[in-house]
Structures
1.
Amino acid sequence: MTVRSPKRIGFGGKSFSSWDLKLSPYLYISPFFILFLIVGLFPIAYTAYISFQDWDLVRGTGTFVGFDQYATVINDPKFWTALRNSFSIFLLSTVPQLILAVFIAVLLDQNIRAKTFWRMGVLLPYVMAPVAVALIFSNMFGDQYGLVNTTLQSLGIPAIKWHSDAFASHIAIATMVNFRWTGYNTLILLAAMQAIPRDFYEAATVDGAGKVRQFFSITLPSLKPTLIFVIITSTIGGLQIFDEPRMYDQTGTGGADNQWLTITLWLYDLGWGQWNFGRAAALAWILFLIILAIGAINLFVTRGLVRDEGKKSDMSRAQMRAARRAAKEAVEASRAAASQKTEVLR
Amino acid sequence: MKSRALRPLGLAAGIATAAIVLAGCSTGGGEQSDPNAPVTLTIATFNDFGYTDALLQEYMDENPNVKIVHNKASTSNDARANYFQKLGKTGLADIEAIEVDWLPEVMQYSDMLAPVPTDLTDRWLDWKVKAATDADGNLIGYGTDIGPEAVCYRSDLFQAAGLPTDRAEVGKLFDGDWANYFKVGDQYVAATGKAFYDSAGGTYQGMINQVEAAYENPSDGKITATTNPEVKDIYDQVTKASATQSAHYSQWSDDWYAGLSNGDFATMLCPGWMLGVISGSAKDVTGWDIAPMFPNGGGNWGGSYLTVPANGKNVEAAQKLADWLTDPATQVKAFENAGTFPSQNEALSDSTLLDSTNEYFNNAPVGQIFSERAKAVTVTPFKGEFYFQVNDAMQKALTRVEDGTQDAKTSWDQWVSEVEAIK
């Protein structure tokens, strides 16, 4: 006697059903990927195509030049200056910003009056348009008549050359970034802090741990995954910084000696200033590769950090494969046993 | 069998497509040939050309079949990006305004613009026409306004320095070459200890605009900037004088605007459109005046054209409108509306223009002054493909010297290596 498989309800029989099982999930998520193909992947690929050309935007034609554009970009001293500036501004804006954000978040996490008011207040700078922020700050950092220098001079400190000293200009630009993004990061960290079970703190208090000890032993470790998210987003944002350096002076080309020329600022100038889209595309791809590399480093570092969070298993891949196989065999064996059982029963 | 059956089908499809395309063309052509058919013309400008609704209405009243839609971009940068993105494709207005600064780029695509009818070329000043004429002899832009330069000065600061204050006398003082201008500057600095002019960059720009072929060889377009003795000479003159005479501001910076009203400098090279900038940002200052003279002859800074993209739907009607908009009589009205100084020969002797004065500048007869300054311009500087990159690098080189980042020689050397890398 043979076993009859249970009757399937529906049309098309077994084959359709199995196709349905295999394909449906992909169909459900396909809208995103189709959209991404059109608005994401196609432009990226087209940029790659243009980067190998001496491209004429107006006529929409180009001549193939191989890796010439890449070579020109890498050999241009401007590229290395821009890279240095991008990293310098990124570090100057991210590090103090995150430290400050954690600190403010801790303050907001305390039992204070008018909580919502303070929390909204922290987010207020984020609501302002970046260009508006840049305009106001650029005015404040004026070399001659800026608010900052006037204040410094009235205190007897010599004026700082905000627009000719490279490091000073980086600090000025980083200040704009910090002003705008600290509040945003504070709120994200605050949300993470609120999710920490209060029992931890109570237990720690009972054990006699002070506020500082509690912060370093409970709050910070629990914030790890959130901090990693915040660090990654600020890395990407920091390397693509554009609005603030663009608005820092009236020409928006990064200073007379390229003091605050960032990669994206140069990219914009190559494309929309000089209409050299081939070279701009090459630079865009180089920037893409740099961000990928840094993303990979991030991933590498954070995987080590988060291991204790989302721990799957300590087994190696081969071990896992072997375990899977063993489990499968066990299931099959039990099925065979079951079918034998039914046969016997019949 | 299959292929044979398909062939006639393909042929039929081909014929059908061709027929549709042809039909499309013929109806389009038909519309254009009838001058009285109703037509909507779009015109795109930026900043303020003085083309008010009332002015455009005049044309619509004269030509009832025409409806004009005027789009204003807020800045010329927005307009520039839009222009070059769409020039080779579609989507530009029937009439597009361009700034003289974009000309080096626009001239590379002069074949995409409908040329101005040759019988109109006498309308404008020679140098205005020459700047927008391509290698084939086609004029591709209808000149609107120009920026003839004079020297603006602070009469109160001049008085304090013991220099003449009267407009005509100051004019005589500046009558000469640039060395003479800098000599006056030395006198002023010696007497007051303050800066004489606003920036090295602005002054350099006034000087280099008097050089026929500063950066590139007009015949083959090759860069000659680094070996041109005229450029080096101007650079040396400006950097030497700027050490004491410049207020070290870069133009359009916040500090520069503040300096305009704070009396940080006593003179400034001044095209006609600069008057509005000065009176707008230094409202409370009384003392700015205009000397009817420019060192070393005439000079022009800025100005615009109207262009008609050749692939537009209503090229003929658009050309007619552009012709009317740049007519001397219309341009004088635009001047009254927005102070855009006309580039047409006839308009320069128009009595409305000549009688116009500017109250802020001590009632200076601006119409008369700038009309003469426009006629004094003799040189049309050649600006090729690389003009902007070279000039931009030069402006940065001057700024480096001004803010003390580098000395004049190091900065020049860096400029040379930058220019040599341009390709």
2.
Amino acid sequence: MAIQLLNGLVYGALLFTVASGLALMFGLRRIVNFAHGSLYMLGAYIGYSASKLFGFWIGLIAAGACLAALGILLDGAVFRPLHRRGPLTTLLVTFGLALIAEDLVLAVWGKDTLSLAAPSVLARELSLFGTRFPAYRLMMIAFGAIAAIALLLWLKGTRVGLFVRAASYDPVVSAVQGINTDRVSALVVAVSAALAGMSGVVAAPLLSLAPSMASDILVDSFIVVVVGGLGSVGGAFITSLVLGQINVLGVVFMPELTALLPFFLMIAVLVWKPAGLAGERV
Amino acid sequence: MPALEVKNVSKSYGGFTALNGVNLTVATGEIRALIGPNGAGKSTLIDVISGRADNWTGEVRLFDRDISRLAASRRRLIGVSRSFQRTSIFPNLTVRCQLRLAAERVGDRDGDSILEEFGLAALADRNGGAIAYGDQRRLDLALALVGRPPLLLLDEPAAGLSLEESKHLAAHLRTLAQRWNVTVLLVEHDMEVVFSIADQITVLQLGTVLAQGVADDIRRNRSVVEAYLGSMA
Amino acid sequence: MSAGRFLAWVVLASIGPAIAALTTSALAQSLIAQATFSAMFALGVGLLLRQNGMVSFGHAAFFGLPGYMLGALLPLNLLPVEVMICATVVLIGILAFIIGLVIVRAHGIAFGMLTLAVGQAVYEAATRLRGLTGGNDGLSLRLPKHLFGLSLKTLQQPAGMLTVSWLVMVAMLAIVSVFAASRFGILTEAIRDNEERARFLGYRTLLPRAAVLGLSAAVTAVGGVMFALYNAFISPDNVHWTASGSALIMAILGGSGAPWGPVAGAFVYFFLKESLDSFTTHWLSIIGAALIIITVVFPAGLAGLVPWAIALRQREAHIARA
């Protein structure tokens, strides 16, 4: 049972590192990035190629760096110029980008499933609660935990974090009070993209790589941010953990319906709280 | 019977108290102005009466009927109407179309006469988003006044208007309210407008009623002058 | 209705049968028939976009479910097949209305995210519930020899289906046009423009928005029924979100400003894809780039070209006179 909880935590941590970026971008700019799953996918594939040459850890960092750069580009070329056009335009444009990203992955890496080996240090099993548990999965949980703590410190402890929280509470008021969304958004989008990209690399040894990985993670991330409350990193954190557990428990108790459980959770929460668990809070 | 009674209304969001036990009675046919410094709770009070605010306590009565729990759409049907501080119209519908939509709902068969009344006839077939700002403000007001609602709540109707336009608006409101027997509660920063049309003035400060009376009383009230008018003069 | 308008509808309705009668290529006829299914799919998506201002990434669920429902229910012989077929469309409309009551209350832009989740839930169900859906192998439909007075053979031949489906498509377009011009249609447009204002004019806004989703799903479902009858087969691919994405692109390409926009968009999309597929494998990039360009540069789509062309001609005439 404890092992199952840990397995749930593995997927929950992964979901959080992807979905928190979506929540941050929504909080700051009131936009939904349909290409967020593609960032995760591109990170995974870049990490895959880089690890072939330089090993897993360099691959992870390279993916983070590339995706951060891509994030800055995305902010400067898409989010900023389209800011006045409303969220629907950004949603459709990022949908177009997601299609292009998929084509790119197909062209460069092919449509076959690829697998990335876990780093040798972690390619073993540990004795935990009387059973064996892969060390690599513990690393995935650690990655999620580090990301969560870093985000918490960033949002609560720095000026930029204060900006982000103020903007997600009320973009109009914070704009009036001289908070410059454009100035912080390149950083926020870069951080979100890097987190998504690194999540892709971290997930690769467990889930393997395929062009469909973008939409798989996107659907669950969307559920996480809607249920958690759009723009709320805290809400995304709690929802990710719950969804991770639901996933694992579902596999144990009702394997046929597992994939539908997040959907039922979403409907149940929305009936109860249309604005999501956290409402409008960060 | 008073048109509007607000009894002990309080509302806070976060840790901030926007309204703190406000009482207010507006007689039928009266034009009442609500003034006070920024953050005094004027717009919040309008929101409470019109059904836009939630999580507040107290009671709102319209012609002695408790409307506190009614949805906004229901309140419009029984006679509470409002305009918005930031103009609220339908940008992609024609002026005529949106006024008709408003008229149909309240059973007003003569949707087009309001076009004339607000000088919008020439713009009837233009889209709401394609007309000038001053015209949009008049459209907003016209939407609120369709069907001659017994109670009209106005949130800064003169905001963004020129001196000339404000004067015209004040005169127009005054005559319309009399002609159609509409009770008006308006929030306004433009003291010219307030003093020229309000029968009575209520001053709010930090969520409570600071003073109330006819224009001259308010002008002479020392605490009001200190709290509000003084800083404006 | 004016005589000119009536004539235009008659001409539009007769194009399909004319193509069926005049062309001999079964391949071309089959393509056009497929395009009419997609056109109805996109018509539903465009209706939602036009009357609710919302994008759906999950309409494939409403397109594919009729096939699954018929596949599962027809062997039970509960009701006459024709009744069953009509009932699936109505049921899907009601289902979407109920889902709408929940998801239209969420923040506006969240709607797109929620439709994706709804659509993928149906996809997951289609792949996992093997006993009912045949899983990834798909499900064959056992159809009777005669349907609505037509022989099944006719319905499953390109020329026959093209004729029938074209007429159904024009009927759907007519229904959507009538709806858009109705009082209720205008009310939903008003709610799309400014929901709060509509509430303060005394209108309740939740039910109309959910009703638009219901109607939009039913229109898409009619396309799905035609698809299922023609192929007598349904598979998870038909309910995958990429199918929803294509229909959304058709609607954007055609433009949601006029009811016929998404229909035109579907035909353009279809023929573009057919002609480009032999040249390039990068269809995804092409359509992705096209979507971005249209969204940013020409948000009104093909339907926006007509008023634009009229305005241009008027301006030219004006200049000529001056």
